[in-house]
Write a structure and sequence with these properties.
By secondary structure, the chain is an all-alpha fold. About 70% of the residues lie in helices and about 0% in strands. It has helices at about 15-35, 40-55, 60-70, 70-75, 75-85, 95-115, 120-150, 155-185, 190-210, 215-220, 230-240, 245-255, 260-270, 275-300, 305-315, 330-355, 365-390, 395-410, 410-415, 420, and strands spanning about 430, 440.
C-alpha cells in the first residue's frame, strides 16, 4: 500500500475487562491445540527425535540434517502467513483456514499411523503434515497477533503466545521418554500408530474450533486489508517497514543457540550418561521453569514500559547456559535447568511483544509467521553449527561459549527498536508531541493510525 492509498484506521471497538480475558482465553485454547498437534513439536517432534537417534542410530549431525530437511516449510513460514493475509478459502477468513488445513493435517497423520515408521516415511510424511499445519498456524497466530495490536494488548498476547507454545513442549518432554521407550520396543509400529492418531485427534479438534469456535474471538480482529493492495505493494511495504527488523534480529540471535538443542541432548545422553527419561525431564524442567516468568510478564507489561523489560530481560538471558559448564551428572543438570529456564522467560516474552507492536497494518499474519521463520531457521542452523562444534571442534564447552557470545550480541541490537514502540506499557499510547511517556487507556478508544509509506509507518504501540 502506497502513501496515497493509505487510510486512517477506525478506532477499535471498546472491550470490557471480561471480554479481554475471554478473548485471551479463547486464543490461548486455540494456540494450545495447535502447538500440541504440530509435527515439529508438541506430542510428535520429541518422540520422533528419540526414535531417529535410538532406533535408526542417527548421529548428532545426521539428526540435525534430518531436522533441517523436514524444517523446509518452517523456513518459509512467512509465505504461509502471506497467504493467510491475502487469500481466504471460500471467503471464510481465519475460520476457513482452520477448518480446511486442520482437516488436511489430521488426514496426513491418519495415513502415517498405518505406515511403517521408516526414515523415508517419516521424512515425507512430516514434510506434508508440516505444510498443512503451517497454514493452520498462520491463521491462528495471525488472528491472535492482530487482536493484540489493534487492542493495545501486545504484551498480554505475547504471554498467551509463549504459554501456549511452551506448555505443550513441556508436556511433550515429560512424555517423550515414555514414547521413546515404546518406539524402542518390538511394538514400535503400534506406538507410532498411537502417536499419530493422537496428533490426528488434536488436528481434528482445531477444525471443529474453526467451524464452531467462539464468535467473540474471530470478531475481535478488525479486517485491515486495503482493497487496492497488490502483491508487489505488500512485499514492498513489509520490507520497507523498518520497525520489524529489531525484533527479528533479536529473535534470530535468541534462537540461534548452538549449545542449546541437539548438542545439549547428546551431551546429556553421552557425556553425563542420562537416560532418555532424564533427558526429557531436563528439557521439561527447563521449559517449565520459563512458564512463571511468561505469566509474570502478562502483569509486568501493564506496569512497566517495554524498553525496561527488553533491557533487563536480555541482561538475565545472556549467561543462561553457563551453569551447564559446572555440571557433571544428570541430577546436577536437572537442578541447573530451573535457573536456566527462569533466566530466559522475560526476554522471550519481550521480544514477541516488540514483534507484535511492530507489525505492518494488514500484514499481521505475515509478520508473526516471519517470526516463526526466524525461530526455525535460527534453531535448525544453530543445531547444525552446534553439532559440528560438539562432534569436531572442542565438544560441548565450545558450543556453550559460542551460544553465550551470540546472546551477548542482543544487547546492542536493543538500540535499533523505535522509542515509540518501546516507551509504553500495554494499554498506553505515546504522546510524542509533548514528549511524555504516555498515558494509560483502560480500554483502547479513539486510537488512530497515521498514514503509512513505503519506508516508515506509525503504529500505536
Amino acid at each position: 500500500m502506497t502513501a496515497q492509498a493509505a487510510s486512517v484506521d477506525p478506532a477499535p471497538a471498546s472491550l470490557s475487562g471480561a471480554e479481554r480475558a475471554r478473548i485471551l482465553l479463547f486464543g490461548g485454547v486455540l494456540l494450545l491445540l495447535l502447538n500440541f498437534a504440530t509435527p515439529y513439536g508438541g506430542l510428535i517432534g520429541i518422540p520422533i527425535s528419540f526414535f531417529l537417534k535410538n532406533k535408526l542410530h542417527l548421529q548428532a549431525h545426521q539428526l540435525a540434517a534430518f531436522n533441517l530437511w523436514v524444517g523446509v516449510p518452517l523456513y518459509l513460514s512467512f509465505v504461509f502467513g502471506f497467504l493467510r493475509d491475502r487469500w481466504s478459502p471460500f471467503r471464510g477468513g481465519d475460520r476457513a483456514h482452520l477448518v480446511v488445513f486442520a482437516a488436511a493435517t489430521a488426514a496426513t497423520y491418519v495415513a502415517m499411523a498405518f505406515l511403517t515408521p521408516t526414515y523415508a516415511m517419516l521424512l515425507v510424511g512430516l514434510l506434508i503434515a508440516t505444510c498443512a499445519v503451517q497454514m493452520v498456524a498462520s491463521a491462528a497466530n495471525g488472528l491472535v497477533s492482530t487482536i493484540g495490536q489493534q487492542h493495545i494488548m501486545a504484551g498480554q498476547v505475547s504471554t498467551v503466545f509463549n504459554l501456549a507454545t511452551w506448555i505443550p513442549v513441556t508436556a511433550a518432554t515429560v512424555l517423550g521418554g515414555v514414547f521413546s521407550d515404546a518406539l524402542e520396543s518390538r511394538n514400535s509400529g503400534a506406538a507410532a500408530r498411537l502417536l499419530f492418531l493422537a496428533g490426528a485427534a488434536l488436528a481434528g479438534a482445531i477444525a471443529v474450533f474453526g467451524a464452531r469456535g467462539p464468535r467473540l474471538l474471530f470478531a475481535a480482529a478488525r479486517s485491515e486489508r486495503p482493497a487496492t493492495a497488490s502483491l508487489g505493494s505488500d512485499v514492498s511495504r513489509l520490507l520497507g517497514h523498518w520497525p520489524i527488523y529489531a525484533p527479528l534480529i533479536l529473535l534470530l540471535l535468541w534462537n540461534f543457540s548452538p549449545g542449546g538443542g541437539i548438542a545439549l541432548q547428546y551431551h546429556l545422553a553421552n557425556s553425563l550418561k542420562a537416560t532418555d527419561t532424564q533427558v526429557g525431564a531436563y528439557f521439561a524442567i527447563s521449559y517449565g521453569a520459563a512458564l512463571p516468568p511468561y505469566a509474570l510478564y502478562g502483569w509486568l507489561c501493564r506496569k512497566v514500559r517495554l524498553s525496561k523489560l527488553l533491557f533487563w530481560g536480555t541482561v538475565m538471558a545472556v549467561p543462561q547456559m553457563i551453569p551447564l559448564l559446572l555440571i557433571h551428572s544428570p541430577t546436577g543438570a536437572l537442578i541447573a535447568a530451573v535457573p536456566m529456564g527462569l533466566c530466559g522467560g522475560i526476554a522471550s516474552a519481550a521480544y514477541v511483544d516488540l514483534a507484535i507492536r511492530s507489525c505492518p497494518r494488514g500484514l499481521q499474519g505475515t509478520m508473526i509467521m516471519l517470526v516463526a521463520t526466524v525461530f526455525w531457521v535460527a534453531g535448525r542452523f544453530g543445531d547444525v553449527w552446534g553439532t559440528e562444534l560438539y562432534d569436531h571442534e572442542g565438544g560441548f564447552v565450545t558450543a556453550v561459549i559460542a551460544t553465550t557470545a551470540v546472546y551477548a550480541l542482543m544487547l546492542p541490537v536493543l538500540l535499533l527498536a523505535p522509542r515509540r514502540l518501546t516507551a509504553t506499557a500495554d494499554g498506553q499510547i505515546l504522546e510524542e508531541a509533548t514528549g511524555s511517556a504516555g498515558h494509560f487507556l483502560p480500554t483502547p478508544i479513539a486510537v488512530t493510525a497515521a498514514a503509512e509509506n513505503s519506508t516508515h509507518a506509525e503504529i500505536s504501540p
